[in-house]
Amino acid sequence: NPGVIKLLKPRFGAASKSVFDVAVETDNDASCRFSLDNNFEYEFMEPFTNTSGTIHTIQGFSKIASGDTSMHKINVRCRDQKGITFKSFDINVDPTAPQLKSAFAFPNPIIEKPFTTALAVESDEPAICKFSSRSKEFDKMEGKFEGFDDGNFRLINKQPLTVENESSHTYFIACENRAELISDVKEVQVKV
């Protein structure tokens, strides 16, 4: 059975700057090579900066021109004792944080028990989102929208929510794009 090649960096296939590190992981000790967009045989590909064992890195990858935000393919071939494994990854540079177009709760106000509503947020590019009633810092937000843990990037993110008591509740919402850049925070008031 062929070996497995996984992309570690950039984590979601997008970098925030045009010079960035690339890292892949193999399930066996291997020697890996790469090419951008062109799919060459192993012999004609460039070696990773460090390639031994199971972690393979390219330091300061700079083959995507500054200002180019289009999608590219980084083709990877790794040779181990069983042969050569091929994997292609979509990769791009996205230097801008996502913009949140709108954030709201529906229904709002909540008029009957159980006090359930859904938070919704729309962004200008696919994103994964979090929310909190306490923190405006993305890393400290305790609530996650659907798809966050699966890395399921969407333009519209929703999350059902049950509110404990009758009063006004404020939620802070922020989203992150594939380049791991974080949006400004939007506030949503939910009245019960």
Structure in words:
Helix content is 0%, strand content 53%. The protein has no helices and 15 strands. It has strands at residues 5-9, 14-15, 20-26, 31-36, 46-47, 50-52, 55-61, 72-80, 83-93, 100-106, 116-132, 143-144, 154-162, 168-176, 186-191.
How are the secondary structure elements laid out?
Elements lengths: L4 E5 L4 E2 L4 E7 L4 E6 L9 E2 L2 E3 L2 E7 L10 E9 L2 E11 L6 E7 L9 E17 L10 E2 L9 E9 L5 E9 L9 E6 L1
Parallel strand pairs: 2-9
Antiparallel strand pairs: 1-3, 3-7, 4-5, 4-8, 6-7, 8-9, 10-11, 11-12, 11-13, 11-14, 14-15
Key traits:
192 residues, mainly beta, six-stranded antiparallel β-sheet, five-stranded mixed β-sheet, 53% strand
Query: Unreliable stretches, pLDDT < 50, 5 or more residues?
Result: none
Beta content comes to over 45%
By DSSP, the count of extended strands is 15
Q: CA-to-CA gap between the ends?
A: 57 Å
Largest sheet: 6 strands, antiparallel
Query: Radius of gyration in whole Å, from Cα?
Result: 21 Å
Net shape: elongated
> Which structural class fits the helix and strand makeup?
mainly beta
**Helical content, roughly?**
under 10%
